[in-house]
Amino acid sequence: MPGYSGFRILTEGLRGNSGWKPAWRKAAPKPSYDVIVVGGGGHGLATAFYLASEHGITNVAVLERGLIGQGNTGRNTTIVRSNYMLPENNNFYEHSLKLWEGLEQSLNYNVMMSQRGVINLFHNEAQKNAALRRGNSMRLNGIDAEILDRDGVKAMCPIVDVDNGRYPVMGGLLQRRGGTARHDAVAWGFAHAADARGVDIVEHCEVTGMIIEGGAIQGVRTTRGEIRAPKVGLAVAGSTSTLTAMAGFDVPIETHLLQAFVSEGLKPLIDCVVTFGAGHFYVSQSDKGGLVFGGGLDGYPSYGQRGTLPTAEHVYSAGVSMIPALGRLRGLRSWAGVMDMTPDGSPYICKTPVQGLYMTAGWCYGGFKATPGSGWCHAWTIAKDAPHRLNAAHTLDRFREGRMLDERGNGPFFWAQ
Ligand SMILES: Cc1cc2nc3c(=O)[nH]c(=O)nc-3n(C[C@H](O)[C@H](O)[C@H](O)COP(=O)(O)OP(=O)(O)OC[C@H]3O[C@@H](n4cnc5c(N)ncnc54)[C@H](O)[C@@H]3O)c2cc1C
Questions:
Q1: What does the angle CA 32 – CA 36 – CA 39 come to, to the nearest 5 degrees?
Q2: Is the domain of 263 the same as that of 297?
Q3: Is the CB–ligand 1 distance for residue 233 below 6 Å?
Q4: Going along 109-222, which residue ranges are E strands?
Q5: Which of 341, 365, 393 is the last residue of a domain?
Q6: What is the pTM for the complete model shown?
Q7: How confident is the model at residue 151 (pLDDT cuts 50, 70, 90)?
Q8: What does the pLDDT look like over 361-371, one tens digit per residue?
Q9: Residue 141 pLDDT > 90, yes or no?
Q10: Could you tell me the superkingdom of the organism this chain comes from (predicted)?
């Protein structure tokens, strides 16, 4: 498949754009593969891409029950960053951010990566100390972090009400290399690049059962028949516990809703990503001009891809506290995704109790930024039947062994992460 380039855009323009082909084939499933990846979101497609590009395993199928990228990958607020505190997490997310930095070249696809900076505001001494601690932990691991004072925040994002009567802004933790990427282009880019290496992307193919013999996976049952493979990787986000139940084991995951909102289009107003420290609210501006914002979880388990009004109300009121001018803005759309929440807020990229069955899951509300890193580590784990050092701590048994990765210190409450 010919690649995309400025030269091709020019030549196609001259011949009436008649030479473009679909970005990936509509593959029909074969009876067997070397590896099956379940879930055609960013994580599943990235897993397939890195299996092919890093490990030379190309006899791979990605099975997606609907259309690729229509799960959380196409529903998120697109923030990319690596400003985590625990070394197990910040090293993993930094690896992912470095992959993002070269992703467009690796995929030959424009994912509209925009490193516009991410600021987390703090409003009191305790929050300032926490931000300093997190920033120091990042810097100790070679990751960029800066502390902005109140004037620094005002200079970078003038629309924020730093003199807020109730929640005065003291400053913010800034990661300049953080930013946003275009969510659906990420799914399409990984699909395009995996397909170009021979991977079959099979849409409208729902996995309905697992074929397990002698404790080892042999394949899956689907709405398009049985498909055999000695290795299967799960990348199904909020549906993880449903799929592992098919394989006969439980996982510490609860499925909760997270909502996103988009406003009417505006002229350029906010050219970074900024997160409120005194309520659940964060915002960036899309290239189309709409403000893209979100907040915290809807606090009860659900598979509905719609959110609840109390959470919407909280998000809007927190937004107006941070930027009073938003009060004059019209909301355009809102929707929700189904999040795979873990008790400690950290993910799993690991082997499972069934031999040959692997998973990348538990991404909570932060898995978009992890997409390349998750696919890279999941592919490594599948190819070598062992974790890479970057995901060695992200196992299912960490709760049994008392080595939780409790990034936010919330304790064992799925909904509080
Ligand atoms: C509102 C919202 C805002 C967010 N904001 C951010 C953010 O700013 N930054 C960030 O880093 N993260 C964010 N996230 C989280 C992020 O979107 C997810 O963690 C990430 O996209 C998960 O990717 P995925 O590929 O694992 O899941 P998905 O994209 O959901 O893909 C899973 C796929 O599996 C398929 N599937 C499920 N069951 C089956 C089956 N039985 N057979 C076949 N296919 C199946 C589904 O159809 C789906 O397409 C946000 C999420 C939401 C909902």
A1: 140
A2: yes
A3: no
A4: 118-122, 146-149, 171-175, 179-180, 200-202, 207-213, 216-222
A5: 341
A6: 0.96
A7: very high
A8: 999 988 999 99
A9: yes
A10: Bacteria
